[in-house]
Amino acid sequence: MSYQAPLRDMRFVLHELFDVSAHCELLGNGLDRELIDGVLDEAARYTGEVVAPLNRNSDEEGCRLQDGAVTTPQGFRDAYRQFVDNGWASMNGPVEFGGQGFPQLVSASFHEMLMASSLSFRIYSGLTEGAVLALHKHGSEALKADYLSKMVSGEWTGTMCLTEPQAGTDLALLRTKAEPQADGSYKVSGNKIFISGGEQDLTDNIVHLVLARLPDAPAGVKGISLLLVPKFVANADGSLAAKNALSCGAIEHKMGIKGASTCVMNFDGATGWLIGEANQGLACMFTMMNDARFQVGLQGLAIAEAAFQGGLRYARERLQSRGLAGAVQPDKAADPIIVHPDVRRMLLTQKTLTEGSRMLAAYCARQLDLEHGHPDAAARKAAGKRAALLIPIVKAFFTDMGQEVASLGVQLYGGHGFIREWGMEQLMRDSRITQLYEGTNGIQALDLIRRKLLGDGGAELSALQAEFSALCDQQLDRPALRGLAQTVQARLGEWRELSSEVIAASQRDVQEIGAMSVDFLAYSSYVLLAGLWLQAAARAQDALDAGTGETAFYQAKLHSAEFFVRRVLPRASGHREALLGGAACLMAMPEDSFAL
Ligand SMILES: Cc1cc2nc3c(=O)[nH]c(=O)nc-3n(C[C@H](O)[C@H](O)[C@H](O)COP(=O)(O)OP(=O)(O)OC[C@H]3O[C@@H](n4cnc5c(N)ncnc54)[C@H](O)[C@@H]3O)c2cc1C
């Protein structure tokens, strides 16, 4: 399956919807349109020509573990070397440690391309970037001096070691221990499972960020500390000491992302150092979690784009049956399946969910950039709140959407979708993990209501709704867009009412939070995407009114917006009704009655 970066759509989102040049000027990073476009072109070449060709083989070959060493699939080492040598690894890294300081609004496009080309390949570098954030923000100067530059450049990777056999979602159950030593270091002992990239053959060193308990730590999440535990301790002169007391005990055999090693890691008194204060590990880890959750959201988007490209290609080539209203291509044995309304329904569902999510990803990326880089402190705080509200939506909705779009990819190919050689079944298998790791999607939905909505009495969500409503108002007077704008405006009003009902129900009965959460997240996501589709339609109409050429591209945006609002947005009604169905019907049945 070949992949081509959707450059035209990415440029539409970056330049026409979000004015990335003005964004970069505000952040003062010296990037202009020409440079950004040049980077995207080169990113498309690297991902399409170097990474994408490895994807299928990496799925078949997988990773191998022998004598504690992991061998990654053929081609990964060379592609990773290019990733480091050509500066892709350091794109977002802090400038003072050799990074290039690219804003997320730009790098998200590259990361989407990379993940669409090979999700497995991206896993190794993805967590390194989160680890860099946590170390940069919370690490001591000495630790930063020894480890950060090489992690920023990609010469060393980073991992995130949270999960243990008995502690998945509930990190309060962690048992890994860290014993203080006279020299200020710690000896870390315990077993971690499911550690992405815990062992690999791409880099000389791997820097593990490990959650563990100090001897006198309070029980629960308030007693968790974050430690840096390298595979090889770095000497002051940059050379590496003998191997630390840690090892990869096994690698998992999985449903998908088979080219990414998922490791059981044993720490046997390994030397490590605290990052941040003792017992503040979870707070430090949250620094990287927001980034990691945004990145996992992008994984859903990337898989969706790849599945859409495959589905579209096949729908144009595959000849089966005649169109309902008669032959469309009478010179052929049958019409291509793209003439059939149901095939178009699948393709347009894929296209509008994918492009809609790309717009929301950019909206969220902009907030993340402003949170860290806006010159004004109040604006940084405001952007941080907006990003925090959006992160669970981006993580959960995009990954559910990615799985749906991948499944539609299989469906579009008919029986061939089930067969390996076409690539659709791999996308479906690869994307399934995105709904599970970095906090399952159920946990994201709980986070949305419990921390983000109830946390401030709905104030931030209300501000977001008001912003979307004001943008919608601007389109009500334009004859070509009035119908769409009215429908979106009505939904935004319904969303406001529903949010108040969700808050009231949560206060009445705490079980309602868990009962409503998944449907509320989905409802909110569809309305947000509808608001963004209206904006896309408005920009497309502006371009058509101005006669700037590319009529087909902008007309397609108008068609897509119409389809999304008429045929996808109505799903919100189902989620609304379901959540209003209440918690009682979930909780009333005694546990014994589930199987009688
Ligand atoms: C391929 C792969 C890579 C991974 N990479 C890493 C990694 O690099 N580092 C790392 O630390 N971990 C990693 N993980 C672990 C992953 O993050 C966890 O599997 C995930 O957080 C869920 O934990 P669990 O598997 O123990 O499920 P559980 O926590 O046991 O959850 C089981 C089910 O119960 C639900 N549930 C649990 N608690 C609640 C609740 N309070 N309310 C409602 N529902 C609830 C969950 O949503 C889920 O549906 C990886 C896992 C895999 C499979």
From TrEMBL:
Cross-referenced InterPro entries: Acyl-CoA_dh-like_C_dom (IPR025878), Acyl-CoA_Oxase/DH_mid-dom (IPR006091), Acyl-CoA_Oxase/DH_mid-dom_sf (IPR046373), AcylCo_DH-like_C (IPR036250), AcylCo_DH/oxidase_C (IPR009075), AcylCoA_DH/ox_N (IPR013786), AcylCoA_DH/ox_N_sf (IPR037069), AcylCoA_DH/oxidase_NM_dom_sf (IPR009100)
Ranges for domain Acyl-CoA oxidase/dehydrogenase middle: 160-268
Domain Acyl-CoA dehydrogenase/oxidase N-terminal: 41-155
KW Flavoprotein (keyword) present: yes
Acetyl-CoA dehydrogenase-like C-terminal domain sequence ranges: 469-590
Sequence similarity: Belongs to the acyl-CoA dehydrogenase family.
Protein name, entry field: Acyl-CoA dehydrogenase C-terminal domain-containing protein
